């Protein structure tokens, strides 16, 4: 229903770095079950906004509500437990751990203590460790990295590391998965895989917010777009209307 409250509600968020206003009173919503693209030229404030939503950075003003709760006072670990997961602009893999261990490590971050007890041999937690492994394997299957599960993550190509970062986000069983430039550095085939993957993830009920530069890629994938420019909200709406917006065209041409 259009009356349903949004999953994420960002209100009047301002972030300043010294004299620079990286985000200037930005408000937008992410609806339950949608794929929302956050776009804008370099330096627009996209990564800063992801930091504010995930709890990595406290805004100077404004609030973030998630699933009806004001999470502004909650830190990143608490927000992760509530169901907000993010990947970083630079794919962050633990290079010496195996691909499977990378995904399992991400799963502990949310479901943590039971797994650690499992490692220490506590019998009651054994089921939890097995479940974590199963959960991790299922995410690798989804992103197409099953065959590389035992490889050290450092041996993966850049594109494979980005897919691994997505699998790590998925392993937290997040309600909101935030991806910062997941398609950066991917070749055409990998971009296609990523695009299908994002649709599959949404298909199983996860809401997605992703940052992207490539307007054509975004237009095919997103239900709605939010455009930032120099820290201000420039436009928002469905891809066709946003891409035709003269202010958006000007911001991109001027870049
Ligand atoms: P985007 O992800 O859209 O490219 P960012 O959110 O990374 O943009 O950056 C927005 C602006 O804030 C840029 O001008 C950037 O240089 C500045 N900025 C980002 N992080 C910091 C920081 N930690 N300290 C100072 N300035 C920053
Ligand atoms: Mg960025």
Automatic annotation (TrEMBL):
- Does the keyword Coiled coil feature in the UniProt annotation? no
Q: Which GO molecular function annotation, any one, does this entry have? A: ATP hydrolysis activity
Q: Start and end of every ABC transporter domain?
A: 8-255
Keyword tags: Amino-acid transport, ATP-binding, Cell membrane, Membrane, Nucleotide-binding, Transport
Which BP terms in the Gene Ontology apply to this protein?
A: L-amino acid transport
Query: What family is this?
Result: Belongs to the ABC transporter superfamily.
What's this protein's name? ATP-binding cassette domain-containing protein
Which species is listed as the source? Verticiella sediminum
Q: Which residues of the full protein are shown?
A: 2 to 256 of 529
């Amino acid at each position: 229903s259009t009356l349903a409250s949004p999953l994420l509600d960002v209100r009047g968020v301002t972030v300043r770095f010294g004299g620079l206003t990286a985000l200037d009173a930005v408000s937008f919503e992410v609806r339950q079950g949608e794929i929302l693209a956050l776009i804008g030229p370099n330096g627009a404030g996209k990564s800063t906004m992801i930091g504010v939503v995930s709890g990595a950075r406290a805004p100077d003003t404004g609030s973030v509500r998630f699933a009806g709760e004001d999470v502004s006072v909650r830190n990143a670990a608490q927000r992760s437990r509530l169901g907000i997961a993010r990947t970083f602009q630079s794919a962050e893999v633990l290079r010496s751990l195996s691909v499977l261990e990378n995904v399992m490590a991400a799963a502990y971050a949310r479901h943590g203590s039971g797994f650690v007890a499992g490692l220490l041999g506590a019998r009651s937690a054994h089921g939890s460790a097995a479940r974590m492994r199963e959960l991790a394997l299922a995410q690798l299957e989804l992103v197409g990295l099953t065959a590389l599960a035992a490889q050290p993550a450092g041996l993966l190509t850049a594109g494979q590391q980005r897919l691994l970062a997505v699998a790590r986000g998925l392993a937290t069983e997040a309600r909101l998965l935030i991806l910062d430039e997941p398609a950066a550095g991917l070749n055409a085939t990998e971009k296609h895989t990523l695009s299908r993957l994002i649709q599959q993830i949404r298909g199983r009920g996860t809401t997605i917010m992703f940052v992207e530069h490539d307007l054509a890629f975004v237009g095919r994938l997103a239900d709605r777009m939010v455009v930032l420019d120099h820290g201000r909200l420039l436009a928002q709406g469905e891809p066709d209307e946003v891409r035709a917006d003269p202010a958006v065209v000007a911001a991109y041409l001027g870049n």
